[in-house]
Amino acid sequence: MSGPHDLEGLTCSEAAARLLADGPNELPASRPLGAWRLLVDVVSEPMFLLLVACGGVYLSLGDRGEALMLLGFVLVVIGMTFFQQRRTERSLEALRDLSCPRALVIRDGRQARIAGRELVTGDLVLLAEGDRVPADMELTAASNLTVDESMLTGESVPVTKHAAAEGVGEAERRVYSGTLVTQGTASGIVVATGERSALGRIGASLATLGVELTPIQLETRGVVKTVAVAGLCLAACLAFAYWWLRGDCLQGLLAGLTLAMAILPEELPVILTLFLGLSARRLAREQVLARSIPAIELLGATSVLCVDKTGTLTVNRMEVSRLWSEQGDYLCLPPGAAALQEELHGLLEYAVLASHRRAFDPMEHAIGEAGARLLANTEHLHADWMLIDDYPLSRQMLAMSRVWRSPDQSAYLVAAKGAPEAIVDLCHMAPQRAAAVAAQVAALADSGLRVIGVARATFPASRLPDNQHDFDFEFLGLVALEDPVRPEVPQAVAQCHAAGMRVVMITGDHPATALAIARQAGIADGAGTLLSGEELAAMDDAALRARLAGTTVYCRIAPEQKLRLVQALRSEGDIVAMTGDGVNDAPALKAASIGVAMGARGSDVAREAAALVLLKDDFSSLLLAVRHGRRLFANLRKAIVFIVAVHVPIVGLSILPVLLGWPILLMPVHILFLQLVIDPACSIVFEAEPVEAGAMAARPRSRDQRLFDRDLLIRGLLQGGGLLLMLIVYHVLLSGAGISEAGVRTTIFVTLILANLGLIHANRSWTPRGRERRVSANRPFAWIGLSALLLLAVVLGVEPIRDMFAFALPGAAALAMSVLVAALGVAWFESVKWVQARWRWPA
Fold first, then answer.
1. Of the listed 308, 361, 618, 679, which one is catalytic?
2. Selection from 670, 674, 671, 666 nearest residue 801 by Cα
3. What is the CATH number of the domain that holds 324?
4. Among candidates 598, 594, 629, 604, which has minimal Cα distance to 616?
5. Fewer CB in 10 Å around end: N or C, the chain?
6. Residue 308 is a catalytic residue
7. pTM score of the predicted model
8. Tens digits of per-residue pLDDT, 122-142?
9. Are strands 319-324 and 474-482 parallel, antiparallel or unpaired?
10. How far apart are CA 535 and CA 434, in angstroms?
11. Mean of all residue pLDDT scores within the chain
């Protein structure tokens, strides 16, 4: 790109006009949900609306106390949900730490440093080592320029860039927003900003991929609607039956509303919200941010985990792995294994001299670190040498040389490094020797290593030649570097396999590198597991699906192919989690069942697309999240069994007195007491339960497994049905003994409360008592049990409240009998657990 402003840049007035026309140089990002939008989403839940409607009916009937208690409960739940979602949004905003970089531009012919968001097309920008490119630019000049484009391409090795005047292709003469200058200097004209940049276009593509509800959300919503409709119909029938049998329309309406409150599953959205919210807080303490809270539960069902190589499996940092010469060989990793042999000192010495002292390039930084470690306390580190000149990399010569002067030598010393074939060419090797070096290079490359050659020369202290070929180079050897696998990855991958999850690596790297990294990580064990992007592009969807089961490594994969792979895996019925940190990962992160972004190094767009963000960039954190997901689903089922079981006696005690002509046992205030004290609180108890032993050694649950399945309903109905039968028998005995109506109601209610606490304890673990090691301590259960008993004591002991509940002060004998019946209930709950366990796990 050329124009009148190539040297002097834009004027301030021109830049202001273009900024007004094009908008700021910012990435497209999803706008955080506002407070009002969050509030509307919360209060529009069908269950909340039904509860508010019930409260309104009570208020219209004049039962202000019951109405206020019910509406107060609704407000507490709304406030808790609203607070959690607002906290998540604020956490996401705080996470956006990679703000748009500042830029050095030429405005009105003078250098000025401005905020990156103020850049416009046509601006002349100056770049140097360590700068982050603020916008897409076409280079007008470049000196030894290399750029780290891993966040766009997934390739960890920096790429060389050239000025447009050199006649190179677009990819070589352009630098892209968000990439990092690792070496050299350049100037360029801005050609695209904001959402029009390459980075911005990837971000904008995410808008076409919708957000899906998780299976648990869909199932819970369906159950709530079905039970709510059925409960209201049954309540209407009971109200009509009461009026028909007893001729009292108002009392019939109250009986119907009481039954409606007993049946309506208001606990389900409450416990779902609490479980997900509390799990999100637990994960946040482990440096895992749940951007989409329901994804925590879905992680427990993950069957395929797609991982990116650079920055996810690897540390995205080069390290010297091996030194090789015709005289010796040395493995640098792990550090400190042995001292570097003398015959290789020169190789590493000149590799350091061929690198910049203040290195931004990852490869040069790794060579410098290796030199400082392996050549410490030797004469091969030369802080006092003076740099005379250098010969940068070029398209014609993939090698660079640096010319030094030693204080004690008159001649110049030249250090060269570069592509092995270029160094061999500079050294003018004999064909047989060159072939031996080439074979060694191939062997190192097949191990996933990046290989460079090193050479040295001396030159008289006179005018330096224009061409590196004019030096008489001596070949010193090869330096092999790697982007090492994160130390925690192999164990984490092994745990994934033990948990029944298949791990798939998707990368843009060379096949040999990809396969070597996959082997180190424990993902692959043979070449037959590899598929290249070129092969993938030639396949139709049916052929791709046929290869999915046997392929664990995908290499040379373009960003759009990552998206296709994720969609193909999901079409096979898998729950797919996708990890990544670059902008190139963002569409696949969005399309996956669960997108997991690496937060510390990840791009803003990737984090916007992800459901979970690993703030520590620790791959093992993903296993922690999966453990939380499995624990969440298992504990949620325990809570639902309790909800089903506890509603059976409540519904039974609401219907039977009407049909059998008994005095009313449960009134609206009793139902509210149970809901306010036991039901929401027990969800906290079950959420606090640790994961069951062996949960991470089992396969993921089936995609078709329902939260409300037959086993869960049978367990809950058996536990609740047995308790209801005991309470009915107890009621008959009390009535037959001449106990007053208020006394019978009090004794039955106290028994129900005590049995509910026993029901919570019985369902904390579904392992039979003889097979479990020990039920772990659960502080929430202790506090909730104590609180329930204290509230019950207040209700019984404070006369105005006791009168409101239509209770009588019970005697010691009645309380002792209630404790006995509740204990029989606990024995029944344990026997149900034992029978079901024996049926599932025969001896």
1. 308
2. 670
3. 3.40.1110.10
4. 598
5. C
6. yes
7. 0.68
8. 999 998 876 788 899 999 888
9. antiparallel
10. 33
11. 79
Amino acid at 122: G
396 lies in some domain: yes
Same domain for 413 and 505, yes or no, is: no
**395 and 469 together in one domain:** yes
Q: Are 639 and 702 within one domain?
A: yes
How much of the chain, in percent, has pLDDT values that exceed 70?
A: 75
Distance CA 808, CA 205 (A): 68
416 pLDDT band, cuts 50/70/90, is: very high
Alpha carbons within 13 A on the beta-carbon side of 680 = 17
Q: What percent of the chain has pLDDT over 90?
A: 20
Higher-pLDDT residue of 180, 790: 790
Q: Which residue, chain included where needed, has tokens 């030797």?
A: 378
Q: What is the DSSP string of 128-161?
A: -TTPBP-SEEEEEEEEEEEEE-HHHH---S-EEE
Q: Would the pLDDT of 158 be above 70? A: yes
Residues near 339 by Cβ (< 8 Å), separated by ≥ 6? none
Q: Are 316 and 646 in contact (CB under 8 A)?
A: no
**Which two tokens mark 731?**
């009621």
- Sheet containing 553-555: give its strands across: 288-290, 612-614, 594-598, 576-580, 304-308, 502-506, 553-555, 530-532
Rg (alpha carbons) of the chain, rounded to whole number? 35
What is the per-residue pLDDT for 837? 66
- Domain assignment present for residue 249? The answer is no
Beta bridge partners of 614: 288, 598
Q: What is the pLDDT of residue 569?
A: 93
> Are 630 and 712 members of one domain?
yes
CA distance 835 to 828: 11
Total count of domains within the chain? 4
Residue 55 has pLDDT above 90, yes or no: no
Neighbours of 84 (CB within 10 A): 19
Per the structure, the complete domain to which residue 357 belongs is given by 319-482
Q: Is the pLDDT of residue 190 over 90?
A: yes
Confidence class for position 272, pLDDT limits 50, 70, 90: confident
Residues 524 and 470 in one domain: no
Same domain, 152 and 17: yes
Q: How confident is the model at residue 99 (pLDDT cuts 50, 70, 90)?
A: very low
The domain that holds 741 is classified in CATH as 1.20.1110.10
Give a yes or no: residue 254 inside a domain.
no
Helix orientation angle between 679-687 and 668-677, rounded to the nearest 10 degrees = 20
Distance of CA 808 to the CA centre of its chain: 55
Domain boundary (175, 208, 241) is at: 208
Give the domain-ending residue among 436, 464, 482.
482
Q: Is 287 helix (H, G, I), strand (E, B) or coil?
A: coil
Q: pLDDT tens digit string along 591-629? A: 888 888 876 655 555 666 777 888 777 777 888 888 888
Token couple for 783: 């506090």
> What's the CATH code of the domain at 494?
3.40.50.1000
User: Same structural domain for residues 729 and 832?
Assistant: yes
Q: Which two tokens stand for residue 169?
A: 């292709």
pLDDT score for 276: 73
Q: What share of the chain is helix, strand, coil (3-state, %, to 5)?
A: 55, 15, 30
Q: Is residue 506 part of a domain?
A: yes
- Is the domain of 558 the same as that of 473? no
Please indicate whether residue 7 or residue 338 has the higher confidence score (pLDDT).
Answer: 338
Give the domain CATH number at 18.
2.70.150.10
